[in-house]
Amino acid sequence: ERPGRTRVSVFIGTAATLSNFTDPISRWIATIVAVMLASRFAVKNNVKVVLWEAETPPTQLCLAIAHRIMFQFVAGMESLILPPVWPSKLGNCGLSRCSGLNDADIESLPCKNPCKSTTCPVGQKCVPYFQTCLSLMHKPCKQFECINGSTECSSLPKDPVCDANKKQYDNACLLAHHNAKLAYRGPCLKRCRENGQVCGINGRTYTSECAAHADMISVDYNGPCSSIGLITNTKSRQCSNVKCHELPDESCLGITPPGACCPLCGGSLRLLYSRKQIDRALYALQNRGTDSINLRSLLKGLERQVQIAQCTVRGYVTVETDIFVVIQSNEGYPSSLQLEACIREAEKIAGLVNMKSPRIVSEVSLSSLTLATVVHTHIATSSTHIYIPNLMLTILAATFQYIWFLR
């Protein structure tokens, strides 16, 4: 593009390249070294290096880290497709547009009440209906529903909702007819706190612990979301102002979810899914019954595979675009036996997904799952490595600076 310079596109970190690196730190190092070599080549040969967005979620993360470190040192490097969004207020319009989104689909603010900006037809009432769609074909990904005031609610399917006064209704239609305020979808829960805001592991603030659990989300810490952790398996410096809950067992198996601040005890999985498979299902359904192919329906499908009544499934789509799932005990103070049972259930589900079990592929909501990775570890031992990723990146950056000045 510039006189005397040749444009060279470097595809960093394909799935084949990174398949041998199971440790996230190893992936970071491999990608950063690749970028260092490409940058060195660019300077010596008077070319420009262009980083392309990778196809696999682990590689996207590596590319984001590499880009942010190397951008400080390499003037000739640019990103044709910006790296994925970090958990911050910074948007990523380049990657979003390449994914098929337009400006109207992108909003950098926290999720708000969709009914404030939505007008239902005359005689109908708007009720929030938050959902996470897993395909761009699922358009519009509606976050509300309009309830007809003249509809006979008893003829509608049973889909329990709970109002702010802890009263349960068989469906949102009855809730609207009683002019009640929606607290959360699902039956009214009892083994949770009804009052006090909490921050979920997905970075969303909920009105109560019950509202988070009803959304199939574990609580990260009490109060509104104020800090977001790095994408590591440990508590990071960004979360220094967060007070975490006491763990039922300090040496339990668990993990700090991606982007969260506090560790959780329980079986943890990272799931990859095929968007093409979801697109095929949506095409076959012809936009009818599309609610059966969203994140909630997928988590509900996984929950049906759990055979221990004391274990529950919770999860969310991470910034790396895969699905993080944790199988926890629903008891307030679970025993070591109950914790162990939930961990075994997580490992069982991972085996079912990886073996393409008929129990998985025969369910529409689960048929898109392609790979499951068990990620839980001993929390007590992992806490000794809190700053190792940052230390390694610092050493690599310092080494690169030294090599760069010696060129």
From TrEMBL:
Record-annotated Kazal-like domain positions: 135-190
Any one Gene Ontology molecular-function term assigned to this protein's record: metalloendopeptidase inhibitor activity
Gene Ontology BP annotations: extracellular matrix organization
Keywords: Membrane, Transmembrane, Transmembrane helix
InterPro entries, per database record: Kazal_dom (IPR002350), Kazal_dom_sf (IPR036058), RECK (IPR039016)
Residue ranges crossing the lipid bilayer per the database entry: 386-406
GO CC annotations on file: plasma membrane
Protein biosynthesis among keywords: no
This protein's name: Kazal-like domain-containing protein
